[in-house]
UniProtKB/TrEMBL annotation:
Keyword line: Cytoplasm, Differentiation, Hydrolase, Nucleus, Protease, Thiol protease, Zymogen
Pfam family, one: Peptidase_C14
Name of protein: Caspase-14
Compartment list: Cytoplasm; Nucleus
Domain Caspase family p10: 145-232
Tagged with keyword Membrane: no
Amino acid sequence: MSSPQPLQEEKYDMSGSRLSLTLCVTKAREGSEEDMDALKRMFHHLKFESTMKSDPTAEQFLEELDKFQQTIDNWEEPVSCAFVVLMAHGEEGLLKGEDEKMVRLEDLFEVLNNKNCKALRGKPKDRDLGEEMGGDQVALIRKNRPQTIPTYTDTLHIYSTVGGHLSYRHEDKGSGFIQTLTDVFTNKKGPITELLEEITRRMADTEVIQEGRPRKVNPEIESTLRKSLYLQ
């Protein structure tokens, strides 16, 4: 019986442009300005073209994602990666805008999938028929390497906490999740999956004091990445 062979690492090409969008509701969310400052520093360090918007309404969450998608598709250079940060109160599967109305996360995620954002097909970002990668006409499709990709591939969703649990934010220091993520992404190198393991480990080792009681939180990660993703 032959010995198992180590996997060969295949990396995403990160030589192109990097674009980011941060949408943050600051209303009744003390400490969120600290989180935006930390994200701004991180995006500058990682060489992302960063756009930040404060206090979007539910409708503006969708409008800003649509604008971001159009910016990506119309960018004059190839785009390697898109990074979107959404910060607001909410419920399971919903975000609350500044106007107290809700927007579905599913609707926000759809804006940048492979069907709706052509420039990000096969790029890391956030029963499928698949979307053609080579335009409307494909001269040759090899059976072992078809020129289609699933609609929702190459996406990484990182939630500040596991579904059904609260996420904690210090009114002066900001969110433990955002502060930990920006510190690790700025000061550590490696595939993003390993960086996320470090973030999870740090958060699991930290106690949050809420209403005089110690509490534990850790992020939840959903990935459809097909290759190793390195931010630096």
